[in-house]
Design brief:
The structure is a single chain. This protein is an alpha/beta fold and about 325 residues long. The chain has 11 helices and 10 strands.
């Protein structure tokens, strides 16, 4: 059994893939000793660290579109759309709050201080205070005020917290990045938007549709979405380059929509499959390295033995007849 330090990225509903990735790690006998998560990664990682991932998954399986809407406590504020209290209260009913320092698995959640642009790491205190700060998507959720800080989603500065996960010396560093790069084609979010606007009777959606002509590739919505996506992808790629996880699960950003929270089984199964493939590739790499090392050792040993016996450049003298 090998110990794992796990980093879980931001990514909205795509972060449900973290559930399957964790399940596969445990199925294959790995022991997760620490979790560092950002945004949805902080939520799923927190549920795992509390020992309640199964209960969280079961609850997510009950989430449909109607339930999603019931958890949105809408606000008239000019800096956010949703207060974010209802969803946290609902989670507390299935997984009670606990001090991070009392969790059986070391846990860290990443948020961003909006004032100075620096990351804020939660490693003690209320689990849900940490989660709530880490998931505070700008303009969507109400920012969290903590002292002089205004905290928003950790994905703004550190969407894949490998730096924090790598602090566990000796553990195998594993990363699950659900905001991987994609190139070409329409994003799933845009496809869904185009489909819904053609069939929807929603007044707000029809108003938005009237402002964005159908089939127009460049508009306010697509530009903003693509801009945020590129920044997140580049920051995650930089983290991967700097800290080089031994196992990397990379899921393209357009694979699932950011708000598909009613598809936990599909998304978590995909995450599990990706982790299984990544672990298989890692095992193959280790096997190839071991074979190469054995071949090198054998060659060096033979060369040393030949030199010792004087057989490398010399031959025995011919025997003379008596």
């Amino acid at each position: 059994m090998r110990d794992v330090a796990l980093a879980l990225s931001s990514g909205g509903a795509r972060g449900l893939a973290h559930i399957g990735a964790i399940e596969e790690l445990e199925q294959q006998g790995y022991r997760i000793r620490s979790v560092a998560g950002c945004s949805m990664g902080a939520l799923v990682g927190g549920m795992y660290a509390a020992g309640r991932l199964a209960e969280f998954k079961e609850w997510m399986q009950t989430v449909d579109r109607r339930k999603m809407l019931s958890l949105l406590d809408l606000s008239l504020s000019i800096n956010h759309l949703v207060k974010g209290e209802k969803v946290i209260d609902a989670l507390k009913e299935i997984v009670p709050d606990v001090a991070i320092e009392d969790l059986p698995v070391e846990y860290q959640a990443i948020a961003t201080d909006w004032k100075n642009g620096r990351e804020v790491v939660f490693s003690k205190g209320s689990l849900y205070d940490a989660i709530r700060a880490s998931i505070s998507l700008p303009l969507f959720f109400n920012p969290v005020r903590r002292g002089d800080m205004i905290l928003v989603d950790g994905g703004v500065v550190n969407p894949l917290p490998l730096k924090q996960a790598s602090n566990m010396a000796g553990d195998m560093l594993v990363a699950v990045n659900v905001s991987g790069s994609y190139w070409g084609g329409e994003t799933k979010a845009r496809q869904l938007f185009e489909a819904r606007r053609r069939h929807s009777r929603s007044l707000p959606l029809n108003i938005i549709a009237s402002l964005i002509p159908e089939g127009l590739d460049v508009n306010y919505f697509s530009l903003t979405q693509r801009m945020c996506g590129l920044m997140i992808q580049q920051n995650a790629a930089l983290s991967i380059e700097l800290y080089k996880p031994e196992v990397l699960v990379d899921i393209p950003m357009d694979r699932f929509g950011s708000f598909e929270y009613d598809h936990v089984d599909k998304i978590s199964t995909f995450g599990r499959t990706k982790m299984r493939n990544a672990l298989h590739a890692y095992a193959e790499q280790l096997s190839q390295q071991a074979t190469a090392a054995n071949h090198s050792f054998t060659s060096q040993a033979m060369a040393w033995l030949q030199k010792l016996l004087g057989l490398k450049h010399e031959t025995l003298p011919e025997s003379r007849p008596k």
